[in-house]
Specification:
DNA polymerase, domain 1; 5-stranded mixed sheet; alpha+beta; single chain; Cytidine Deaminase, domain 2; 2 domains
Length: 238
Amino acid sequence: MSLDSHIRIKDLPAQERPRERLVENGADTLRNSELLAILLRTGSKGISAVDLGERLVQQFGSLDKLARAPLAELQKVKGIGRDKAIALKSAFTLAQRMAQEIRQDSPVLDCPENVASMLREDARFYEVETFQILLLNTRRRLIRIEKISQGTLDTILVHPREVFKLAITANAAAVVLVHNHPSGDPTPSEADIRVTRDLIRAGQLLKIDVLDHIILGARSQHRAKDYVSLKELGYFYT
């Protein structure tokens, strides 16, 4: 095989083929670079598809940044031409639309994982902290999502009046607070804890339950979950 020929996944030994490993062991067992290799299908100029996937992961640092990258920036990566860039952009856009469809099905939001699953794809594209509320009915089903405010890279301003005006207008019985940390570390700050307790007290006066405050971040080598629940962490007392 010449250096100018495309290296195909099927040319790899069977134990190194991401498709075969996905079928045998499930998609969750594959590394991000291997899942990207399946999308890319072939490598380029002496680079295998898996190596090309690894190059994307290393260059962008996270799937969040890769998902947000415009086509022109993707094509700057050696081995990523127009067609491969389009395939990547299409895959990430489909993931975002799937998250939107889940919201439209009026899911029951009775645990932090359900909330995180619904919002994490959209949160990947937020470059600053974005505070949202989920308005729920008496059965804990979603009425709608409202974006309250956006801040700088690491701070947001939230006033109880803004939150509960929307909740009252929607006739919501409860709300879930959600915001993201662009740094990827979902550990709550003192400001996060203070805002949460202020909103819990306001909700008690208005008879609208604040069920949880979810902070979205990113998984890492030392962090299995990409979110935290302030309720699970024990901060839901006033």
